[in-house]
Queue: 3 jobs
Job 1
Amino acid sequence: MFINSSKPEVSQLVVSVPLPLRLRPAPPELIRVPTLEGFASLFNRELGSARRNGAEPALLMMSLRSLVVEARAANAEQIQAVLTAMGERLRARVRSNDVVVQIGARRFGVVLQNMAGAKPGAVQQRLQQQLSGAYEHRHECLSLALNMAWARSERGGQESERCRLSAEELLQAADAALQAEGQGPVAEERRSRHRN
């Protein structure tokens, strides 16, 4: 048996390849589902997973109220471009573990994963300010207005008193609040004029 006790030779040519200082994963993409039923299935899965991990999720729903270009309604191409930009902006303004879904063409749902210490109403207000307003498409300024509503399971004083709503119940509550938000005083005034 031969044992070499001398130090290994080191080559004079050492190639140095710089490594990135920090590898950051890409942010999650916007998920698209064609119908509210498709979103309900995804939301049920996310709600179950969050609850198994001890989180208290909330649901934020939003829909397009209006999109105008210089006092006229936007066309389909402009609507699609602005909603794509708004969806990307929404994805960038929520936490990376929150799930953002575009439902059909004009509606979005956000599963806010852990809202135990936060108020969904405050998140809604912040997003309303950040997402509504002016967007530019092909050198035209478009003004976007959104309806938003949220729902979450109510929390009682003790763990045993906690009301655990199902995904379907939370989705119905958020959707009903979204529909009521969309009607508002102007729509109510129009309905009362038609009755008279």
Job 2
Amino acid sequence: MLLESELIGVSIINQSAINLGYSVENAIYSSNLLRLLGFSLKSKARKSRNKHCIQWKRIIAFSKEGIVIASEREIILPKQIPDIHEAYLKKIEVMGMEIKSQEGVLIGIVKDIVIADNNGNIMGFIASEGLLTDLIDGYSYLPRSKCKFNDAFGCLTVEDDFEDVLIHHPLGGLKKILGIDITNQQKI
């Protein structure tokens, strides 16, 4: 699995590990937020007015040096692929998106996106439930299957009681730092 935040700024390289002069600027998601379509790119040297991108399906691998593609020909303009062009124009900002209950109550903010590295599907979201909760418990995990994207309000809506949906890491936040085990199963 990959986190979107770890991919921003990563270099694009070919199979010979030669840097192609581009880095990831933003993720481009499908309009229903079910999968990652590709990445918009930033040129490190060229001052082009045209924005470039790569399709998810053209990525060969992820390495320490960067995102591996076959060649520079895989770097395209968004308008060359209709799905990417539509998503590029719509530009859904997922990081920082509100997470609300069905009643419209704010229950959290998206801090990161968990992506399946084999197919680009969104697995879930790393969520903040507020400073105090984050400090004590750490961030929570919201599985993609437990929420839907509400395009009209530009937010994620949980489909069940949010207490049952958000998964807290049992040893997150201060609990981990202080060695507190709330389950009394094991001391750190």
Job 3
Amino acid sequence: MARKIILLLFVVFFMALILFTGMMFMTNETEVYSKEDITLLAEKPAFFTLSDPTVTEEGADVVNKRGLSLFGIPLGSYTLTERTLDNGVSIIFEHVENTSWMPFVLSLQTEGIDHAAVKTWNPAPVSGEADPAFGSDPTSNPYGTVPAGEGEILQGNVYVSRGLTLGNGEEVKELRHEVSEFTAEEGRIEKSFWVSPKYQADTWLMLSPEPFFAAESEEDAWVNHALENRQEQLNWLTPAGPLVKIPLTDDLRTELAYDVVDERTNDSVSEKWNESAPSIFFETMILNAEVNQTR
């Protein structure tokens, strides 16, 4: 009898595993944003439902929030925020939150780009040397730039994290991992990642009507500088401001803790670089800092 029960449980488990795998890898796409030749798509498991967006305006931001559910059971949400700056550049922030107890996979895609002309912003590994005050920062530069019509896109990486309360009561984000390897083919960039229960994921892109730098040598100069000076690169951008590594304390949880820090949000580094080598990129970072400071 016991053997029959064990066999039955094994069969049930195996069938549930097949069903779960099928739900995750049978997918469909939903268009979540479109501007001129650029389209953003969210590819999700076929049995998942992405609701119609609830749209709100917050200053320079237009926020589109959609619920994510499975057979009517809420799983979390997908939020797209479009920030339009005075220089004509749009920053698109995407935020996925898993409020359930079931992990799921998503793929966020950017369509309408020249995938063969992607210029990586990580031509070499980032400096692995630990900072005395901040420790090691495992994040890298943004993914890179790519032509899109007459303009250009700067694509950020994906940051999977969870909310965490430190011993002093400070609310921070604990980085689980950064996804920096994407698929670029057939006119699109595809960012695929898993979101564990109670975790969230952030990514972003900048859409400019013209190249971010006047010359490739100027772009290379900044990229190389950012690789070697981790405290001057803002790579985890969110609508609330850039998340940066916070100083280490006796609380071991600060080793992978990130937060919005006013001094870094002000982005004096971009101001300094824009004085000596003006560019759309530095101008955009400065304008974005101004928006963040008013929030």
